[in-house]
Specification:
Elements lengths: L4 H11 L1 E3 L1 H10 L2 E5 L3 H7 L6 E2 L5 H5 L15 E5 L4 H13 L4 E4 L2 H7 L10
Parallel strand pairs: 1-5, 2-3, 2-4, 4-5
Length: 129
């Protein structure tokens, strides 16, 4: 192994903006950002999500944010701040780094991810089956 996940995470964390859960909650309450859930759909069904979240599976990130991709999603052409999150903040750190490298402006992620959000007592919503 030439580079492990810990080094990848350390490098990503040094390059991206990481919001505390308190700052993320305040931003969400103001409606000043688009929150993007990177978790697998099974995680959302099991644990719920932050209200108003756009779901983008981590594996589709590069394809959904690139305007030249046949899978491009218009939401990523909006002039807004994007707050990525996953379960614990690892996938979202790597995703934020990738999105920045691709040229997506105003992207950050939540320290501790959805777990930290839930632990704070902030509101979540369950998906309808």
């Amino acid at each position: 192994m030439k580079i492990g996940y810990k080094q990848l995470l350390d490098e990503a964390m040094s390059e991206v903006e990481t919001l505390s859960v308190e700052d993320a909650i305040a931003l969400h309450e103001k409606g000043e950002a688009q929150f993007v859930d990177l978790r697998d759909i099974r995680e959302l069904r099991h644990e719920g999500k932050i209200s108003g979240t756009y779901h983008m599976p981590r594996g589709m990130l590069e394809f959904w944010i690139d305007p030249d991709s046949p899978y491009f999603k218009k939401i990523f052409s909006q002039n807004t701040r994007f707050v990525f999150y996953c379960k614990s903040g690892w996938r979202s750190a790597l995703a934020t780094q990738t999105a920045q490298r691709m040229g997506l402006d105003g992207v950050c992620h939540i320290d501790g991810g959805f777990d930290a959000w839930k632990e704070s007592g902030a509101q979540i919503e369950m998906l309808d089956d």
